[in-house]
Amino acid sequence: MKFADFLIAFVVIGIILLIIFPLAPFFLDVLLIVNISLSIIILLTTLYTKEPLEFSIFPSMLLLTTLYRLALNISSTRLILSEGEAGQVIETFGNFVIQGNVAVGFIIFIIIVIVQFVVITKGAERVAEVAARFTLDSMPGKQMAVDADLNSGTIDEHEAKRRRHRVQREADFYGAMDGASKFVKGDAVVGIIITIINIVGGIIIGMLMGNMSIEQVFEHYTLLTVGDGLVSQIPALILSTAAGIIVTRAASESDLGTDLLRQITAQPVTLIFSAVLLGMMAFFPGFPSLLLLLVASILGYFGYTLSRAAKNVLTDEKEEPAFREADDLRKPESVFPLLQVDPIEIEFGYGLIPLADASQGGDLLDRVVMMRRQIAMDIGLVVPVVRLRDNIQLGPNDYVIKIKGVEVARGNVISDHYMAMDPGTGEGDIEGIATIEPAFGLPAKWIREDLREQAEIKGFTVVDAPSVISTHLTEIIKRFGHEMLGRQEVQAILDGMKPKYSALIDEVVPKVVTTGELHKVLANLIRENVSIRDMATILETIADYGNITRNTDILTEYVRQSLSRAITARFMPDRKGKVLTIDPELEKSITDNVQQSEHGSYLTLDPLKSQRILKNLAKEVEKMASFGLQPIVLTSPAIRAYFKRLTEQVQPGLIVLSFNEIDNIAEIQSVGTVRG
């Protein structure tokens, strides 16, 4: 057990034992001094704390110190009633307050107790309760604000995670403070009850067992009771004040003293105005004129000095930015920020800004968050933060999608209309503005909101403008996802797997393949819409075959075969598929024309033969599409990669699988043959 853990356990057990076992007056004095010192330390800590979470242990400290104070109260009461004394500290406190007049001293003590209970403790309890309630109510808004900053690119994933954790800690802290303040209130009530018990019990015991007169008994036990009460209530008062301070520090930027001085002196005119009022009061009969004039002079001097200093600072602030900007532009380092390129960004015309502005009801940011989560679940790709920008050079309803600063897609939407598309079940026509759906190139129409229900009744698929943009963005990311996966992202994936698969990662990277070679394999998979979520299987396959070949294309084929179950489920969800096969002569021709080089292998077919293959393929694909079937080409493992490369220029979305990538339980039916 660590020393700190042992120490806190010993302290808690010791506090409980104080309640049970009697203490000698000397040891009680020592513990009372410790109690006072501890309360002062806690108060000073809260004064120099910039924000509540810097002293997050405060609720637990409040509970322990309250228990400690109650234990001392019980011990002192035991000594007062049993021996008629309670140590030097309590007696000194009693003499200091009473000062020879029992009645006046006791009244002063009662006032201190009332101030502690009614003002400080009650106020701290209320502040903690309200702070806890408002903190819990604001949690969803704070979390949404973090997500919005993440989507806009203001912060990265690490910073977003830190802020979410901070929001959760704030809620936990204020909730704990709300509960801990109830202990402070209970402690104040118990202190009043113990005071009454000490006086009444002391008088009874002193008269019956001490052979003392009523005046002597009253004076003696009142002195001890007041001293005991003060020794307990003063630390309680300090801790209640500390509790009130720490729960009201939410809007502070520095420690209390700095904030107090800066904010009070921020408006010098208030000091000058106060000086004028005090100077006028000095001429009223009965007031101490010299004292008022002295204070007015001091305030006036400080107000005038601060006013001049504020004017000088304002002048400097106006002149400094111009010099600073000019100096920054002259620095060689000022060019480097211009080299940063966002992995993916969307630029809007001014008419589409409300779609991305949450304050105007736009939910595009939320849709982008869900899109990133969906792609991560779908193909295992962590999409970088999507930067959203307005661009006045675009048309009001236009948007542009850029990958690494280069435009890859463009679209046009009407923000107050809905897009209606005929999925093949639409009946009749519907009034609207003809357009093309940007993600899949389908014919569609922009319709007014009042025609939405009518279009849905007729069998049209109706979506709003943000859905059109987010769907388009999703398809673009799937198409160019392999470009967004870099070596840094691959390393981040490996780091995330490290706690669970450390042995596997240490075996593969960099002993079998480098991070760059692993990146090429993963990029090949994503390029053909194969999920890389099952990284354990991918790494195990590379570990098995990486010592045989370092060719990343061949390693990719081995990995695809290991992922056969996932590939089959992805492209044939019901384990049934109608496919196109390759003519055996064509397969042999492709195999014979594969050339090997030190940089890998490539296909060297005659251009005329390639054109015939692509023409026959287009006919078969069109035939399958006419029957509503998804075109899938099934080849032998040896030529799959080469046939895919041959066709991806004219059929980029064509699915090409090998026999080894089909699950054994799948039912395959050939509906055509591609010939050369």
Observed structural traits:
63% helix, 676 residues, alpha/beta
Describe this structure in words.
The chain has 676 residues and is of the alpha/beta class. It has five domains: 21-261; 267-329, no CATH class; 344-482, Glutaredoxin (3-Layer(aba) Sandwich), CATH 3.40.30; 485-562, FHIPEP family, domain 3 (Helicase, Ruva Protein, domain 3), CATH 1.10.8; 575-676, 3-Layer(aba) Sandwich (Rossmann fold). The chain is built from 22 helices and 14 strands. It has helices at residues 3-20, 25-47, 58-83, 88-98, 102-152, 157-209, 214-247, 256-264, 268-281, 289-330, 353-356, 364-379, 452-457, 465-484, 487-508, 515-527, 535-545, 552-562, 564-571, 584-592, 607-626, 640-647; strands at 344-348, 387-390, 398-403, 406-412, 418-421, 433-436, 443-447, 461-464, 576-582, 594-597, 600-603, 632-635, 655-658, 667-674. A four-stranded mixed β-sheet has the order 2-1-3-4, covered by helices on one side. A four-stranded antiparallel β-sheet has the order 6-7-5-8. A four-stranded parallel β-sheet has the order 13-12-9-14. A hairpin with a 2-residue loop joins strand 3 and strand 4 (406-412). Helix 3 (58-83) packs parallel to helix 6 (157-209), helix 5 (102-152) packs antiparallel against helix 6 and helix 5 (102-152) crosses helix 12. The protein starts with a helix and ends with a strand. The model has no long low-confidence stretch (mean pLDDT 82).
